[in-house]
User: Which sequence fits this backbone?
């Protein structure tokens, strides 16, 4: 194994120190360390964070390898400072059996750039009719702990209740894509003043809030763990605040794009801004940001959703919803939160690692901790060029925007996956 001596790095914003990585762990920290065999990295001005963990990534393999593969998505993740991602189940075939989740898990190991933790489907084929083999997926080599029909809502309350009951036995989690389907039929964007003006069918906030309200009550009734994907409205924040005050075992995520972009982007009719749930209003953004700071929203998750050109660069009505996120998430977090490094580590590494049960992740760089970390240059500013992204797809909503921060290096258990801002393999 390689050894690395990282010189003058600021761990989570603290005074600069040296950090020696050896045998997969942080072996030593302190001023003026020496290690003649180690590769020296000059980290003047850089900040070390625990490797980021994404609870919501679409890797598209198996089935849509033209949009992303486990390997290309893993590389995009490492370049974004991530050391672990949870791969959503809406692949083709759907990850609803032990066989498919093991395939994804194995592909992740082969790529070797981040830990890929598969999420299993809740229902067979994401059809919302009968429960998938949750137990078989949990007992498989992939050891699935989170189940989600993401892309679809588990709309049937009886099925949702049974899923929550089933995973309780092994402390599993149901991650809900909260969208009441009858309230969002034909929806093209957020329902509000802009949708009225553009004449597009709206996706009302209440369609999300109603499902979250129902499911926190179900989770309380059953005593199971519930996770809410991509919370997007101010009303959802209030429902979650109420549920958490009651002690419901619910966690919630917000995406970078819902923290930054509003529904006015739809005025361009550029389908790169079409996403599900849709971009909301400035009022929603303010509530989501406040909830992220006060902890009602637990984590930032990317909902990285790569799409091939023919599925995205077409008329708004026909374009698939979804945006890239892995390579820009930390920059958006820095833009939104500023250099609050402890908060960023909490929302993007420690808490998602804890929710997903990824015990090797989410540890601050300190002696004895796994050397699973990332180095950020907070002073850098970069212009996002879609063609330069490592993802196989190009659907970033931040094209040609200037964003703060740049990932300089990423380490997974002591091995560099990114050095000098470039993927090692
Ligand atoms: Zn979703």
Assistant:
């Amino acid at each position: 194994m390689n050894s690395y001596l990282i010189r003058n790095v600021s761990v989570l914003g603290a005074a600069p120190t040296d950090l020696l990585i050896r045998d997969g762990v942080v072996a030593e920290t302190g001023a003026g360390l020496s290690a003649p065999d180690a590769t020296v990295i000059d980290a003047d001005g850089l900040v070390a964070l625990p490797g980021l963990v994404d609870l919501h990534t679409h890797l598209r393999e198996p089935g849509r390898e033209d949009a992303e593969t486990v390997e290309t998505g893993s590389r995009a993740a490492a370049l974004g400072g991530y050391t672990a991602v949870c791969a959503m189940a809406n692949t083709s075939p759907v990850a609803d059996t032990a066989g498919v989740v093991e395939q994804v898990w194995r592909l992740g190991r082969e790529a070797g750039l981040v830990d890929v933790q598969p999420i299993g489907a809740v229902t067979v084929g994401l059809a919302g009719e009968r429960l998938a083999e949750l137990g078989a997926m949990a007992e498989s080599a992939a050891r699935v702990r989170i189940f989600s029909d993401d892309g679809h809502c588990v709309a049937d309350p009886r099925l949702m209740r049974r899923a929550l009951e089933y995973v309780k036995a092994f402390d599993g989690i149901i991650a809900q894509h909260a969208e009441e389907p009858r309230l969002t039929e034909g929806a093209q964007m957020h329902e509000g003043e802009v949708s009225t003006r553009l004449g597009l069918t709206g996706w009302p906030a209440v369609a999300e809030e109603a499902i979250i309200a129902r499911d926190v009550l179900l989770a309380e009734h059953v005593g199971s763990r519930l996770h809410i994907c991509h919370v997007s409205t101010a009303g959802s924040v209030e429902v979650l605040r109420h549920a958490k005050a009651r002690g419901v075992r619910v966690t919630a995520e917000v995406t970078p794009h819902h923290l930054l972009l509003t529904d006015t982007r739809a005025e361009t009719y550029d389908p790169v801004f079409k996403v599900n749930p849709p971009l909301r209003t400035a009022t929603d953004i303010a509530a989501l940001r406040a909830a992220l700071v006060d902890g009602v929203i637990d984590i930032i998750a990317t909902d990285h959703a790569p799409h091939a050109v023919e599925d995205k660069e077409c008329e708004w009505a026909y374009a698939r919803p979804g945006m890239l996120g892995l390579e820009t998430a930390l920059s958006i977090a820095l833009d939104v939160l500023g250099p609050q490094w402890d908060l960023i580590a909490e929302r993007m590494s420690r808490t998602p690692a804890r929710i997903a049960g990824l015990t090797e992740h989410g540890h601050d760089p300190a002696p004895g901790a796994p050397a699973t970390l990332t180095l950020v240059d907070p002073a850098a500013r970069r212009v996002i060029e879609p063609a330069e992204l490592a993802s196989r797809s190009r659907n970033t909503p931040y094209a040609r925007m200037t964003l703060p921060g740049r990932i300089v290096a990423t380490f997974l258990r002591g091995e560099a996956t990114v050095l000098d801002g470039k993927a090692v393999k």
Q: What stands out?
A: The pocket of zinc ion is lined by residues 150-151, 177, 229-230 (CB under 6 Å). The mean pLDDT is 98.
